[in-house]
Design goal:
Elements (H helix, E strand, L loop, with lengths): L9 E5 L2 H14 L3 E6 L2 E6 L2 E7 L19 E4 L3 H13 L3 E8 L7 E6 L5 E6 L20
Parallel strand pairs: 1-4, 5-8
Antiparallel strand pairs: 2-3, 3-4, 6-7, 7-8
Length: 150
């Protein structure tokens, strides 16, 4: 057995390239990630032991939007360091006129779970949560997968 050291990176292919690029160029630095690559058809940010790359999808898919229930990605969840991080992100997203699926709220997934769910301009679902302590790794805590990620 080995123990991984986190997820190295997530690469996103998006429709609506111009709008998504602007969205991520605003969002990712707000989350503390630093741009390490800026190409014509790719941006790449690193920070918080996380990297996110964004590129335009293949042109034959350019008219499509993200479909959360299809094979593949369901959503990406960034981890905040406090409830205030979630609230600050909510205010920032309002200034971006981002689609907010649900505003900051508590959820049943772990004790103290607090999160916001939103979409990029291509409809990719993004979440940011805060879970105090060890969350579901806390002794005696049962993971509850119920919830409304619809």
């Amino acid at each position: 057995m080995i123990e991984i050291n986190g997820v190295a990176h997530v690469m996103l292919n998006v429709s609506e390239w111009a709008m998504c690029r602007s969205f991520y160029e605003a969002l990712l630095p707000f989350l503390g990630l630093k741009q390490v690559f800026n190409g014509e058809e790719n941006i790449y940010y690193v920070g918080g032991r996380t990297a996110i790359g964004v590129s335009p999808c293949h042109e034959k898919h350019s008219g499509q939007r993200f479909a959360q229930g299809c094979v593949g990605l369901h959503h990406i969840c960034f981890r905040g360091r406090s409830r205030e991080d979630i609230d600050s992100l909510y205010l920032f997203l309002q200034k971006l006129n981002a689609t907010i699926v649900y505003p900051p709220r508590e959820g049943p997934w772990a004790p103290g779970y607090y999160s916001i769910l939103f979409e990029d301009p291509a409809g990719i679902r993004l979440e940011m949560n805060y879970v105090p302590g060890k969350g579901v790794l806390e002794e005696g805590v049962q993971f509850d997968p119920a919830g409304d990620y619809k």
